[in-house]
Design a protein that fits this description.
The structure is a single chain. By secondary structure, the chain is α+β, with helices and mostly antiparallel strands. It is built from three helices and eleven strands. The strands form two sheets. Strands 1, 2, 3, 4, 5, 6, 7 and 8 form an eight-stranded mixed beta sheet that branches. Strands 9-10-11 form a three-stranded antiparallel beta sheet, with helices on one face. Strand 10 and strand 11 form a beta hairpin.
Length: 201
Amino acid sequence: MALTADRETAAARLRDLPRRAADRPELKAAAVAVCVTCTGGVPALLITRRAARLRSHAGQWALPGGRLDPGETAVEGALRELDEEVGLRPAPDAVLGLLDDYVTRSGYVMTPVVVWAGDVGQLEPAEAEVAAAYEVPLTDLDVEPQFLSIPESDAPVIRLPLLGGWVHAPTAAVVYQFCQVVCRGLRTRVAHLEQPVFAWR
C-alpha cells in the first residue's frame, strides 16, 4: 500500500488516534513541526539538515522544532520554530493534530505537531540553525525502517534511509509514526523505539 494523504484524510486519521502523552514533568518540554507541503499537488514532508556549527546534533536530519518557551503550548512552539528555522508562517488552522509524545535520551518530552502548510513557495532556512531544508515527497518516505540491536539498550533502534543517508530517532520515530498513522491509517506506536547512542546527550 503506497503512502498517500490529503488534508481531510490526514485530519480525520489524527482525530481517530488515541494520542499518548508522556507524563514526565521533570523533563524539558519541546515540540517539532511535522509539516506537509504541496508543490504541484504532490504532498511532501519538510525535513531539515541541522547546521554543522550547532553544539548538539550538528549535521543531523531533523524536523523544525525545539524547546518550548515558558507558558508556550506545543502548537505555539512548533509554529514559532517553523518561522524561525525556515521562514514559514502557516495559519493556526493549518494545524491538524498531534502525534504521540516521544521522550528523548537528551531529556526532552517531544510533542509532534502535524501542520498542513500546502504550497509554501520558497523556503528561507535560518543559516545559524539550518544547513538546508528539503521537501521530501511522501512517496520517497515509503521505505522499510531498519531496527537495530545495541548492547546499551533492550529496545530496538530505528533508522530510515533518506537522501543517501540515514535519519535516526527521534526524527526517524516521529516520521515513521506520521507515515503509519496519517498516510496509512494505522495506529502504530513508536515511544518504545530507541535512539542511537550518539544521540543520548
